[in-house]
Amino acid sequence: MTRTAVATDDHGHVVRRVVHVGPPDDGVDLLRIVLDGLDEVTFHESADGEHALELCREHRTDVLLLDIAPLVMPAADVVRAVREDPALVDLRVILLVDRARAHEVEELVAAGAETYVIKPCGPHELVAALQGRPYDA
Fold it and tell me: What residues does each domain of the chain span?
């Protein structure tokens, strides 16, 4: 029996292209493991918001995983840039949030982020966010 693991959002669209922007910390290893387990997913990384936006445009990305750790370009500016760019109008923004920075989520969701995942997170939580559904432990 062959199993195909894919992430589809709540509208049935298959997630194929993902960009992660954030520091190269231990969480990136989990992202790689989870995304490598999904068929036909291309994963790009950046430590800079502006570069991540360029990657999203270039690769017609489906999901931007935005770590709100301190970046050269603040997370709120990245979210606003996505929402103001006609080329990125359909880009889903999922926040990766450290518990200590959870108070920032409301502003970022108001700016246009879709949802968030509290770090550290497990693979099931990440896949649930990619699929646009809440994670039920």
Answer: 17-130
Homologous superfamily of 17-130 in CATH?
Response regulator (3.40.50.2300)
Q: Over the stretch 27-54, which tens digit does the pLDDT of each residue have?
A: 677 777 777 777 778 888 888 899 999 9
What contacts 137, CB < 8 A, 6 or more positions away? 124
Taking the alpha carbons at both ends of the chain, their separation in whole angstroms is 27
What lies within 8 Å, CB to CB, of 70 at 6+ separation is none
Beta bridge partner(s), residue 45 = 20
Cα distances from 19 to residues 14, 100, 136, in angstroms, run 15, 23, 25
